[in-house]
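Lecture 7 notes: from sequence to structure.

We start with a single chain of 353 residues. Read the sequence below before looking at the structure.
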Amino acid sequence: MTLEELRQKIDAIDTDLLRLLNERADVVHAVGELKKREGLEIYAPEREDALLKRLVAKSEGRLPPKSIRAIYREIMSAALALEEDLKIAYLGPPGTWTHQASISKFGHSVEYLVQPNLADVFDQVRLKRADYGVVPIENSTEGAVRDIFQLFATHPLKICAEISLPIEICLMGKGPLGDIRKVAGHPSIIAAARKWLGQQERAFEFLEVSSTERAAAAAREDAQIAAIGSGLAAELNDLDIIAPSIQDEASSARFSVVGRRPSPPTGCDQTLLTVAGDEMGRSLVSTLATMEKAGVETIRVDGHEIDGSDERGGALIRMEIVGHATDPPVAEAIAALREAGKEVTILGSYPRP
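Now the structure, written as tokens:
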């Protein structure tokens, strides 16, 4: 076939795709109307996860799973925006990896509400100003975000989905690498790319700022300044990515989607909970033994000593386990821990990512 014939074929396929997408939107609208009449949530994380897995399994063509998920993420995002003005609160500022994780989960079509701190994200969801919140819960270099666990203890919210995101640091700016004299970024991000930055022919002057947003603003104003941060920050600030993936070591971060309702069981779930008890060593051993006796698999566990002024005792253990909190083995283990005098807080059960 000639180039022109191939282009005409693409145009015909695009026309069919557009027709089918509009048909899909009509069906989604009918589903949305039914859910509203029955008082059900418009967005169902467990349904979305199952749909994406099924689509990936069905695919027999050239598109890799990553592309299929990205395409359908935006299709579902557009459908959600049609049915309800879905609002997602996230820990800002814009252009952070939390922002990027939010978009990877909900797409570009929903409304995002940037929040200055974790407590405000929780408050926005609790007060129904936002439908869901996205917060960082762990990164591979620094471990768990401990402030999160206290917020779960004081807010009636549950984790309903998890997002895992590789952390890719980019150098971004208005000019070519040879014109860059200064590099602006948050101190932790500069530190994570120190090796790559030190290997360049020119010795850069570093400008430490409080956020990637401020670094990008400096790069917009001066072509001799480059910013480092997420690729999303480059997109939002109309900056070119001068060099991608300049981080010294591969790392990742995990984020939680928090909502007002718990996620129902799907048959392939995990549960995140905390267990407060006595001295760390004894509490950890007894907690793991209880899980093992009930036949519950532990994915990961960590803990820290609690200040003596805390009425809950001497240790707080964080556990991720296989299964939903309502599954009989998990429910049995939780009941046994509580009977033993431990305070168990279920942060959420959600589809395994």
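The longest helix spans residues 3-38. Keep this in mind for problem set 3.
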